[in-house]
Design a protein that fits this description.
By secondary structure, the chain is an alpha+beta fold. The chain is built from five helices and twelve strands. Helix content is 24%, strand content 28%. A hairpin with a 5-residue loop joins strand 2 and strand 3. InterPro entries: Znf_MYND (IPR002893).
Length: 207
């Protein structure tokens, strides 16, 4: 069952591909949801980059990249449920991390389920938004990362990184504040500042 670290991050055990159980947290990197190792020591030992990412959970579907919010303000996402994520949604539903809505959308060779993100913002492990930082909050992070006081959608591991990112973030801040996440994602792809997410069809064919 889920638990909470002293800093508020919600943790839960997951069985990853291969049968190993890991203590994980729901992470958010910008507008992407991922599963991350909860502890710093495990991140350094078990991931090449040290950022602790176990797998990506959300998929930005071209027709409907951001399905919207529930009546109580919780975000809904399309969930990657194939390849290394096979069986993961069921675990996350049992851990009360994701709640499937029953809706699906066809994408190439797969159907992606829609799910509600259950944890609150304060219960997630957020990644620093500065390009190249890659650092996620962990159960040891104290104090927690700072976040933009306007959009409340971008987090920073330090004041220096927040200031360094402002020149880029100010272009997106207004849209994020208004919930126009699709416009922000389209701008990101058009600027080609980061690799565009892999097409679902390509991922499914390679699974």
């Amino acid at each position: 069952m889920p638990d909470h670290a002293e800093n508020g991050i919600r943790t839960f055990p997951v069985i990853i591909q291969g049968g190993d159980t890991r203590l994980a947290a729901l992470g958010r990197a910008g507008d992407e949801f991922v599963l991350v190792l909860a502890q710093d020591a495990a991140r350094k030992e078990e991931t090449d980059s040290g950022n602790g990412i176990l797998t990506s959970l959300s998929v930005l579907v071209s027709e409907d990249p951001f399905p919207g919010l529930t009546m109580d303000g919780r975000q809904m996402i399309w969930v990657k449920n194939y390849s290394e994520n096979a069986g993961l949604l069921e675990q996350l539903e049992q851990a009360r991390v994701l709640r499937p809505t029953g809706s699906t959308i066809p994408q190439g060779l797969v159907r992606l389920p829609m799910a509600v993100v259950v944890p609150d913002e304060s219960e997630m492990a957020h990644r620093c938004a500065l390009d190249g930082c890659e650092r996620f909050e962990s159960v040891e992070t104290a104090p927690r990362f700072k976040r933009c006081s306007l959009c409340k959608r971008r987090y920073y591991c330090s004041t220096e990184h927040q200031h360094a990112h402002w020149a880029r973030h100010k272009k997106d801040c207004k849209d994020l504040t208004a919930g126009r996440y699709t416009q922000v994602e389209q701008r990101r792809r058009a600027q080609d500042e980061l690799p565009a997410p892999a097409r679902v069809e390509e991922l499914a064919e390679g699974s």
